[in-house]
Amino acid sequence: MTTRAGFVALIGEPNAGKSTLLNRMVGAKVSIVTHKVQTTRARIRGVAMEGDAQLVFVDTPGLFKPRRRLDRAMVAAAWGGASDADVIVLLVEAHRGITEGVERILDGLAEIGLGRKVALAINKIDRVQSEALLGLAKDLNDRYGFAETFMISAERGYGVEDLRRWLAGQLPEGPWLYPEDQIADLPMRMIAAEMTREKLTLRLHQELPYQLTVETEKWDERKDGSARVDQVIYVVRDGHKGIVLGKRGETIKAVSQAARAELEEFLGRKVHLFLQVKVRPNWLEEAERYSEMGLDFKDGNA
């Protein structure tokens, strides 16, 4: 049996649907998916099998114009993930078309794409008419020499199998990189922290989520088969602590219940989740926090 294995980088603007596509490809929730932009920080890898091929997906942070250190580190991680991949998939939202951000990504691809196959995936196709889709596909292919173009809906699954089959055929021959039943190479502690951060992001409808981070401080396996998980939510100022806790602790309680339920479903066993909120004014400037998120602190330098 000839096996194939390699890395596939999903790139695009924030909210283009990269995390949704990754979860659909892998068949499990391994990356944070919310309606808010810039929620994916670490380069989360999901592993999918397609016939005799193993596809290792690098879910990169959305590419956008960086303003802060964290932004710059996220953008550097995104391009780093693309540069290291065997195949790149650019996701473009059908209804938004060629935005200024997409233009910037096309320029970046022109610099790193040489010698690499790049596929175009036009996502959320259910939002526009077919004539507009064909026009957008032509315009994008006129600007960059994509190896293949796919029309998909990551949310509904349309066109995703065709894309996965094509990707499998592009990977180099070689042994699989992970055990067949493994779906992600992230430590469970980080996946758990991402789940809690997703629930916070969904619950809090202000700028705050981008100024907080979640870390799994302790993970204790219990004799009864359950796990005790202790997490810390770091915020940058006292006022934010109150927002995360909520009136009479209602917000933190709701977040804890939702995160625990998802973690239990993911692990298939009981979880005791304990959350604390701590004020850490300079966490955005601490190298340790960046390494926890899988980012390079030095990449954030202006």
Features:
GMP Synthetase, Chain A, domain 3; Rossmann fold; alpha/beta; 2 domains; 3-stranded mixed β-sheet; single chain; 9 helices; globular; 23% strand; 302 residues
Describe this structure in words.
This protein has 302 residues and is α/β, with parallel strands linked by helices. It folds into two domains: 4-170, P-loop containing nucleotide triphosphate hydrolases (Rossmann fold); 188-300, GMP Synthetase, Chain A, domain 3, CATH 3.30.300. 37% of the residues lie in helices and 23% in strands. The protein contains nine helices and nine strands. The protein has helices at 18-26, 69-84, 100-112, 130-143, 160-170, 188-203, 238-245, 250-267, 287-292, and strands at 4-12, 44-50, 53-59, 87-93, 117-123, 148-151, 212-221, 227-235, 271-279. The strands form two sheets. The protein has a six-stranded mixed beta sheet with strand order 2-3-1-4-5-6, with helices on both faces. A three-stranded mixed beta sheet has the order 7-8-9. Helix 3 (100-112) links the parallel strand 4 (87-93) and strand 5. The longest helix is centred in the last third of the chain and has 18 residues, at 250-267. It is a peripheral membrane protein. An essential GTPase that binds both GDP and GTP, with rapid nucleotide exchange. Plays a role in 16S rRNA processing and 30S ribosomal subunit biogenesis and possibly also in cell cycle regulation and energy metabolism. InterPro entries: G_ERA_dom, GTP-bd, GTPase_Era-like, KH_dom-like_a/b, KH_dom_type_2, KH_sf_prok-type, P-loop_NTPase, Small_GTP-bd.
